[in-house]
Amino acid sequence: MLVRARGVRVRHETAESWRPDGVDLDVRPGEVVLLLGPSGCGKSTLSLALGDLVPRSVPADLEGTVVLGPAPDGGPLRVGMVFQDPDAQVVTGTVFDEVCFGPENLCLPVDEIERTAHAALAAVGLTGRERDDPGVLSGGGRQRLALACALALRPRLLVLDEPTANLDPHASVELYRLVDRLRRDPSGELGVLVVEHELDDVVEIADRVVVLDGAGRPVTDGGTTRVFREEHELLAGLGVWLPTAVQLARRLSAAGVRFDPPPVTLGELADGLAGRPDVRPVAASPGRVAATTTPATGKIGTPATGKIDGEDPASPIVRARDLTVVPGRGREPVLRDVSLTVAAGEILAVAGVNGAGKTTLAQALAGVRPPPPGTVDVAGLDVGRAGPRAVAAVVAFVFQNPEHQFLAPTVADELAHGLRVRHTEPDEVDQRVAAALDRFGLGRYRGHSPWLLSHGEKRRLSVASALITGPRVLVLDEPTFGQDRARATELMALLSELNADGTTVVMVSHDLQLVAEHAGQLAVLADGRLLAHGPTGELLTDDRLLAAAGLRPPPLRRLAGALAGRNPAWARVYRTADLPGPGRDPAGNGPVLRTDASAGPPREPGTGPASGPTGPRTGPAAGPAGEPGTGPGR
Q1: pTM for this structure?
Q2: Beta strand pairing status for 32-36 and 60-68?
Q3: CB within 10 Å: which end of the chain, N or C, has fewer?
Q4: Are the beta carbons of 217 and 42 closer than 8 angstroms?
Q5: Is 293's pLDDT higher than 60?
Q6: Which tens digit of pLDDT belongs to each residue from 372-411?
Q7: Residue 547 backbone phi and psi in degrees, to 5
Q8: Phi, psi of 622 (to 5 degrees)
Q9: Residue 599 pLDDT more than 60?
Q10: Pairing verdict, β 191-195 and 21-27
Q11: 517-555: buried (b, 16+ CB within 10 Å) or exposed (e) per residue?
């Protein structure tokens, strides 16, 4: 046994409850254990406790026992950890020094340290970046660096906390292939504990699943296949993510499609549907996702100027012209000659592999990284020339790492900060703060420090802080990062509501299934250049484009590709609403999906064309029981 935890419960400083609370957990050599649970249930805290960081480095009360088995040589067992936030574990000035830092502290010989560091960097695809400052790597690059640092310690137990959150889909696949390879190496006897929301890849290698409820108590522990086949109702009720195949099977089940046994992986679902010619894709209305949350009692924020009388909703509110961004003197541009427009009231997604320039583009559009004068215009304002306050009045930005935008000592003060800077009346500030606390499930943390929230709670706070001032344009970098299914669903429903009221949304996302369900327009970047910009449905069904961008098709597209040979209608499927579901029979009670390539995204007859500024417009589509789409998918 590598680690044996019994009755583990942790209570952080200022916290009233224990999370996790009474957890028993074993990890054996060669085993991959997947830890699931709603945001804030204590998954990350449990991971820290297993790595002996609670309470040694993180002040907290710890009850129960955590016993680490000895290493084969009789010495202490090494635990390698990769945190949710890779920036939290970067301590040196170069990539190579960062990977060497751990082995150096073990007093290993220099030649062994260098050999180990080079091997770890090669394993995560960072060969050639040895002399780079970690700060110039993309978020995904820093995530891979953190993994390399953990591997360089040659641990027996590897703890991965949301390891793919900043990775593009291909990098996610490669990471879990690497983990699978390492745990199967008989010389290493590696055990792995994974906290993850993106489940499609990890379920292929996970042996067991341990699930905590919202209070941090264990509710199930069993084999991966058994848990997802037999207890998916329990997991859905807890609001945690399910593998895409399980979510789609649940939707199809509502339309009368039964599987025996129920599928857990996309391959199993494809095999099950291949023998069901009666199950056909349907034409879904391209309407917006319906709100699935109870409206707040007060307003959080509405667009500062609202919809201007006489304003053409298709006119560009955001415009970039020949935008080039160079991170420093002597460096290569991270963006090259990018030109695009975003129509007022649009939802634009920005996609691309790690290092493609997505975050840089988003920051330039929002003025967080001031663009060259004359290259970015938002609501008639030259972002490169205007002052920060003028820019912040029309566009708000939500960072990939929520901690990068915290300024105040309490959650309530963090929400109120932007309003107070604008000299909003105190009563209005109180009203909006109360509404935001309620809407984002943060009421009990009103007086807490933002830094003591869970990562999922920090993400909700960062989004709420941006929305509360009512910007006309909202730019988000990985908005659902670290969120469980329930909270991500609420967040995307809220963004859809704000968009329907006139807020223009630009979001960076690695989750192409989320993009498929919610974004009307898509911009694809590759090597700092704009490769394509157009209707989401057209771009996501263009396999050659995705290949050129190095992007992996989203899960539903991969499923559709496996089925298109028997029915060409599947070739145009890319979002959940294209499948039979509640109110649809398996044969597609309604029009069969159109298959002509020029038709654009499917629509119901009689609704007329749904036109966007550059072509057919697609909107978000609701999944079963109010779920907007299938959730995170690679």
Answers
A1: 0.82
A2: unpaired
A3: N
A4: no
A5: no
A6: 999 999 999 999 999 998 999 999 999 988 888 999 999 9
A7: -65, -40
A8: -80, 140
A9: no
A10: unpaired
A11: bbbbbbbbbbbbebbbbbbbbbbbbbeebbeebbbbbbb
